[in-house]
Amino acid sequence: MYLIAIAWLYVALLAAITEHTVVGAVLTFVFYGLAPLALVMWLFGTPARRQRRRQREREADGLNDRAESGDDQ
Known about the structure:
mainly alpha; about 85% helix; about 70 residues
């Protein structure tokens, strides 16, 4: 996935270099390169974030259960 992201940024950079003004180049790179790539990476990262959150919740629930049990249990 990172290879695709790097290639996308490379193409956006080449498109930005062909612009006639610096402002146009920056806007081209941001709106054709960084913004769409950030959105795609965030969307593709959602399942992993969700899985990490569930894992943290499971660990927190497990730790709380052990902490509340006394010696007599």
